[in-house]
Amino acid sequence: MKHHLDWSSYETAGQGDAYAGIPATGGDFAKAVAVCISDRLCQRKPKGVMCPSFRVSDDAVQSPGGRVLVLKAALNGEFGPTPFADPRLAEAMDLCVGCKGCKRECANQVDMAAIKIEWQAQRNALTGVPLRDRLFAGLPRWLQYPHLLRWGVKLRNRVPLLARLLEAYTGIAADRRLPEPAARPFVTPARAADTDMMAADGRDVVLFVDTFARHFEPGIADAALAVLRAAGYRVQVLAPAADDAEPARPLCCGRTWLSLGQVEAARNEARRMQAALRPALATGLPIIGLEPSCILSLRDDHLKLGLGPEAEVLAKQVWLFEEFIAREHDRKRLSLALKPLGGEKLLVHGHCHQKAVGAMKSLRKVLRLIPDLEFEFVESSCCGMAGSFGLDAEHAAISRQMAELDLLPALRALPDAPVLANGFSCRHQIVEGVARRPQHVAELMCAALA
Questions:
Q1: Phi–psi pair at 420, nearest 5 degrees
Q2: How many CB atoms lie within 10 A of CB 166?
Q3: Which end of the chain has the lower number of beta carbons within 10 A, N or C?
Q4: CA–CA separation, 224 vs 242, rounded Å?
Q5: Where are the beta strands (DSSP E) in 228-343?
Q6: What CATH code would you report for 8-127?
Q7: Tell me: the pLDDT tens digits for 78-105?
């Protein structure tokens, strides 16, 4: 079996364990599957991160442990010579939203989100990449023509007949609004003369503006720049390297491709980022990002792309915006004057990946920096949008059911409360579910600047 991701970190997994049950084929990928010990902790229904597809369906197959059993059967030859094209495996993997809850809450940290990427890549190699997956994954490329894409999306959102025709042709749910690109994308400011990457005072940082902030919500990037500069940091916005083959196209972490099993395209995007970051990696500059799924991919999923030691260095040097602010505050290096905001209690929804890596602690610390701010973390599972998952015609209904487990009822209970959600997909789901546009923490802090 040729792997699309690098599973070598599991090389010694299960050795000496008589009950590991490692499948007969699949090599190190099979060992990654077999770390599950079948304790059924993933088949629970309390509030929290763990497996929203099981909580909604009440079907054991739609839990990490249930998926492991089907994967083991496939890798043991029970599904014939092309198991990754078998509909039984597709049924088991289909509702995994890649929330990474299992990696945090499973006793052995089974990484079903990464396993699903490998399954999709294997299936794509056998059956081809579906049109819808090509459209969604290629979003960073389509956004080279932002005005044309914006016009097309607006037209589709406003003409129900066109939306239904596109659903029939592409499988994109007609009853879902697609996010519309902003009228004006984020524009990288000219580099100031004092932005010296080799400055000795430790006040230089690199800001990575992801595809979603750049093209859909540029106010988030503007707010992050304002806060970092107000705190005394010299900010360089990451741009392609001088020898980049596509210097006019903004950098992307490759998440859209990776989440849909198009690993080689994701690897190419990751290499572009590494080339652009090489000077910052060499000098140890903090690299700050805004979108949890993008930044935490650099820290986790990119380590499975076979990109060499630089990927490991980057994983240790990249921070979510709120993680960096919290770290600098803990180090007594943060000089930021903030004022009270007033208003109702703030409701906070955490992105699944933030929860999975424990990044919500940093968010809590940062919110406490704003004087007199009253806030409450919504105890919820995945919002259900999960990238493009909630936009799929066959997934739209269950995506809404996931949102209705905990998140949307909690927001409806306090209809006047402002909402904070750092994930782009989370904000999209909330806007559709309760017609309230959540803020990103960078926007909240910018509003609180004295």
A1: -120, 130
A2: 20
A3: C
A4: 25
A5: 234-237, 287-289, 318-320
A6: 1.10.1060
A7: 999 999 999 999 999 999 999 998 888 8
- Rounded distance between C-alpha atoms, residue 181 and residue 144, angstroms: 11
Please give the Cα distance from 364 to 383 (Å, whole number): 20
Encoded amino acid at 237, one letter:
V
Q: Where in the chain is the domain with CATH 1.10.1060?
A: 8-127
Gap between the Cα atoms of 186 and 251, Å rounded: 13
Q: What is the pTM assigned to this prediction?
A: 0.94
Alpha-carbon gap, residue 99 to 254, rounded angstroms: 17
d(CA 210, CA 114): 21
Q: What share of the chain is helix, strand, coil (3-state, %, to 5)?
A: 50, 5, 45
For tokens 């914006």, the residue is 150
Continuous H helices in 284-344: 292-299, 309-317, 321-330
Q: Rounded distance, CA 266 to CA 273, Å?
A: 11
Q: Token match 């010579």: residue?
A: 81
* Distance from C-alpha of 280 to C-alpha of 180, rounded to nearest angstrom: 33
Q: How far apart are the first and last CA of the chain?
A: 58
Q: pLDDT digits over 190-243, tens only?
A: 765 444 455 557 899 999 999 999 999 999 999 999 999 999 999 999 999 999
Give the residue range(s) of CATH 3.40.50 domains in the chain.
346-447
- Tell me the per-residue pLDDT of 47-72, one tens digit each, with 9 for 90 and over: 666 789 999 999 999 999 999 999 99
Say how far apart CA 401 and CA 57 lie, in whole Å: 9
d(CA 445, CA 450): 10
> Which tokens go with 391?
């936009």
CA 75 – CA 79 distance, rounded (Å): 8
Burial profile 371-401: b = 16 or more Cβ within 10 angstroms, e = fewer: eebebebbebbbbbbbbbbbbbbebbebbbe
Q: How far is CA 50 from the centre of its chain?
A: 16
Q: Which residues contact 194 (CB under 8 A, 6 or more apart)?
A: 234
Look at the block and give the residue holding tokens 């990044």: 359
What's the rounded Cα separation, in Å, for the pair 442 and 218? 12
346-447: CATH topology: Rossmann fold (3.40.50)
